[in-house]
């Protein structure tokens, strides 16, 4: 749905304002710092030793014998010596804090999650994958509706004028949730850039689509004139993030403006239109706004898995289903209008 990813940006703004007081309480702990420093020297934490600490990637050459290189699965997940030291020191420190009645704190800006088979945030990964599946289901059923259930115009052209736009939206949404799942699985520089870039691309395109659909822009020349400046800006912004500097503050501002703009457009449109399925649009808009409360609350992960962000991902699953239902209803509605005019 349109508001899937922009609410992340709103949460980032909130975190930027209040998170600095709390985000690094764990990694500022002297006991945690001492544990990490000792682990990086010895390769061990509390009797647990990590073989990758013997194979630092900056020392072992890539052309050295295979048995001297870092294992392939570690390269793929990039769980190097420092990452394992930080994780295991965090686990031990949290046990000590729990023993004296203290609650969990963030380490390097993140809550202490339990790692499962190398996956960093299992619940967020699972819910991101379900959102991906829901978008795939919606996009697939939308395509089946267009090409097999709705009548075609002469020349076998689709009656629904916005079909190609929604098809592109479906592909961008699936791509965005794919990289969301990968990023929550392991947040390294590459996965972070892919996740943020995909979210920005989806946000920018969703804003264009909101304008074109809500203002009923059907002439191709007019569509190009509307889309061109937005596409140029979004492309430039993505290139700026990836090849100049990854400016979190600027990216937050851009995402919030694009997200709020499209949300207002859809809300106003749903309020003035006589579309038979406008209530679905209202539910998605209001439901997405209420789901943001989970992001603002930002509680620590229950049992090390389910934090506010993961639950927010869960709430977008039914909203995504309803959003694609609205899109399909819109295709039927617009087709029926066109056929009545043709008669």
From TrEMBL:
It is found in: Endomembrane system; Golgi apparatus membrane. One of its GO terms (molecular function) is hydrolase activity, acting on ester bonds. The chain crosses the membrane at residues 132-150, 162-182, 194-212, 224-244, 250-272, 279-297, 309-327. One of its GO terms (cellular component) is Golgi membrane. Pfam families: Per1. One of its GO terms (biological process) is GPI anchor biosynthetic process. The keyword Cell wall biogenesis/degradation does not apply. InterPro entries: Per1-like. It is a multi-pass membrane protein. Keywords: Golgi apparatus, GPI-anchor biosynthesis, Membrane, Signal, Transmembrane, Transmembrane helix. It comes from the Eukaryota. Residues 1-23 form the signal peptide. The keyword NAD does not apply. PANTHER family: PER1-RELATED (PTHR13148), POST-GPI ATTACHMENT TO PROTEINS FACTOR 3 (PTHR13148:SF0). Involved in the lipid remodeling steps of GPI-anchor maturation. Belongs to the PGAP3 family. This is Post-GPI attachment to proteins factor 3. It comes from Hibiscus syriacus.
């Amino acid at each position: 749905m349109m508001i899937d990813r922009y609410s992340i940006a709103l949460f980032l703004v909130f975190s930027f304002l209040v998170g600095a007081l709390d985000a690094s309480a764990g990694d500022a702990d002297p006991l945690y710092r001492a544990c990490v420093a000792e682990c990086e020297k010895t390769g061990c934490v509390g009797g647990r030793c990590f073989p990758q600490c013997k194979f630092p990637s900056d020392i072992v050459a890539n052309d050295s014998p295979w048995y001297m290189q870092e294992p392939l699965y570690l390269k793929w997940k990039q769980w190097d010596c420092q990452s394992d030291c930080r994780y295991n020191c965090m686990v031990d420190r949290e046990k000590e804090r729990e023993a004296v009645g203290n609650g969990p704190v963030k380490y390097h800006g993140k809550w202490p999650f339990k790692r499962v088979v190398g996956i960093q945030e299992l619940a967020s990964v699972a819910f991101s994958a379900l959102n991906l599946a829901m978008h795939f289901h919606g996009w697939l059923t939308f395509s089946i509706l267009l090409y097999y259930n709705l009548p075609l115009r002469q020349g076998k052209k689709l009656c629904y004028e916005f079909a190609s736009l929604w098809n592109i939206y479906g592909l961008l949404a699936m791509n965005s949730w794919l990289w969301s799942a990968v990023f929550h699985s392991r947040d390294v520089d590459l996965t972070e850039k892919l996740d943020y870039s995909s979210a920005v691309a989806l946000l920018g395109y969703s804003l264009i689509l909101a304008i074109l659909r809500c203002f009923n822009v059907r002439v191709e020349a007019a569509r190009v004139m509307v889309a061109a400046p937005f596409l140029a800006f979004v492309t430039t912004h993505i290139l700026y993030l990836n090849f100049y500097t990854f400016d979190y503050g600027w990216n937050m501002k851009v995402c919030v403006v694009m997200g709020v703009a499209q949300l207002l457009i859809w809300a106003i449109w749903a309020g003035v239109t006589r579309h038979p399925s406008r209530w679905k649009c209202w539910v998605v808009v209001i439901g997405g706004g209420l789901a943001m409360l989970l992001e603002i609350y930002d509680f620590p992960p229950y049992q090390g898995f389910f934090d506010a962000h993961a639950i927010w991902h869960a709430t977008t699953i039914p909203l995504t289903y309803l959003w694609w239902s609205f899109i399909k209803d819109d295709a039927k509605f617009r087709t029926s209008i066109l056929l009545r005019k043709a008669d």
